[in-house]
Amino acid sequence: MELFDVYPLYDITPVKGEGPYVYDAEGKKYLDLYGGHAVISIGHSHPLYIDGLRNQAGKLGFYSNSVKNPLQEELAQKLEEVSGCLDYQLFLCNSGAEANENALKLASFHTGKSRVLYFEKAFHGRTSGVVAVTDNESIKAPFNKGHQVTKLAFDDLAGLEEELKKEDVAAVILEVIQGVGGLDEASSQFYKSASKLCKKYAAVFIADEVQSGYGRTGNFFAFQKHGIRPDIISIAKGMGNGFPVGGILIDKNIEAKHGLLGTTFGGNHLSCAAGLAVLEVMEKEQLMGNAGSIFNYVQDKVSRIKEIKNLKGRGLMLGLEFDFEVAGLRKDLLFKHHIFTGAASNKKLLRILPPLNIKKEHFDNFFEALEVELEKLVHSERG
Ligand SMILES: Cc1ncc(COP(=O)(O)O)c(C=O)c1O
C-alpha cells in the first residue's frame, strides 16, 4: 500500500535523536532549531522522558476513560503547579486540533450560541471546526465551510465589539503569538480589552497555546505576559515532547457534565507519563528561564546582522524576517550546514523553535552558518 501523498518531504531520514540533534542512518548530525514544528520541548530522547515512558509501558500502556486513572490527576496537579494557572479543570485529548475542537464545542455548549470569531493569519488546526477558524481558504473543504464563523483583523477592538454586540457569539479564539501566521503579537491593551469584552457579552475567550505554551516564550503561557485570564486554554505540541497528547484547561466556572466531551485515547497512561516527564524536566532544568536568557543572547546576535530586518516573537518562539524570501536559505542551512529551521505563511520569515534546553553554543553554530549563507547571497547579488 502506498502512503497518501500529502506532505512535501525533504530527502532526509532521521533515525535517532539526542538533545537538540537528530541523526540520519549514516550518522549525519543535524541541529534541530525547529523541534519538528515546535513539538520537542525538553530535547530528543531525554533520559527522564525515556525512563518515564519505559516504566509506564512496562506497567500499563492504556485503559479507557471508563476507569480511574490517577496519572491524569497527577498531571493536572503538576500542570497547575508549574504553569501557575489556578482554578482550572483539565480535559485531555490527543492533538492541538482536537484540543481546539473541544474548546469550541465546550464554548458552544456553555453559551448555547454557535458563532465563533477568529483573526487574520490564525492557524488552529485542520479538523472540521478549527479549520473553519483558520485563515487559509486552501485547506478548507466545502464540508468545513458550513460553520458560523467571522474573521477579524488582529488588534481590531472596534470590530470585535461590533460582532460581540450581536450577542450570538459563543467564542473568540486566538493565538497570543501567531505561529504559522508569522509570529505577530497584538498589544497587551488588545488582549486585556478583548478578554473584558468577552465577559461583557458572555462569549468564551479561548487562548490557543498549542504552540506558544509550555514555556516556549519564557512564560509558561504566552498570555501570562499580558495579565489576562482566558476561559479556556488549549495545549498540545510541547506537552508530550513528541508523544501525541493535548488538552484544554477550563475555567472552574464552566461546569462539567457526563458525556459533554469524550475520547478513547485521550489521557491514556502512556501520554500522562510523557506529560509528567516533560513537566518534571521543565522544572528541574528551569527551561522557562533558559528560554528567556537565550532570547536575550539571540537579540544581541541579531542586532549585529544587518540583513535581518526584524526579530519577531519572544523566548524560543522566534521569527527572523528578511527582505527576501527564505525558502532557498532554509534549504542551504539544512543541506549545507545540517540545521533545521522552519517556514511561515510570511515567506520572508525564518522560524526558530528549538528545544527549550538549547544552549548559546548551538545558536553560535546557527549564526555562523547564517552569516556564511548571507555573505554568499550578497556576493551573488553583486556578481
Ligand atoms: C497554534 C496552533 N494551534 C493548533 C495547531 C494544530 O495542532 P495539531 O497539528 O496537533 O492538530 C497548531 C499546529 O501547528 C498550532 O500551531
UniProtKB/TrEMBL annotation:
MF terms per GO, please?
identical protein binding; pyridoxal phosphate binding; transaminase activity
**Gene3D superfamilies, per database record:** Aspartate Aminotransferase, domain 1, Type I PLP-dependent aspartate aminotransferase-like (Major domain)
SUPFAM superfamilies noted in UniProt: PLP-dependent transferases (SSF53383)
Q: Which InterPro entries match?
A: Aminotrans_3 (IPR005814), Aminotrans_3_PPA_site (IPR049704), Class-III_PLP-dep_AT (IPR050103), PyrdxlP-dep_Trfase (IPR015424), PyrdxlP-dep_Trfase_major (IPR015421), PyrdxlP-dep_Trfase_small (IPR015422)
Q: Which CDD domains match?
A: OAT_like
Q: Which cofactor does it need?
A: pyridoxal 5'-phosphate
For this UniProt record, give its keywords in alphabetical order, as a comma-separated list: Aminotransferase, Pyridoxal phosphate, Transferase
Similarity remark: Belongs to the class-III pyridoxal-phosphate-dependent aminotransferase family.
Matching PANTHER family: ACETYLORNITHINE AMINOTRANSFERASE, MITOCHONDRIAL, AMINOTRANSFERASE CLASS III
The molecule here is called Aspartate aminotransferase family protein
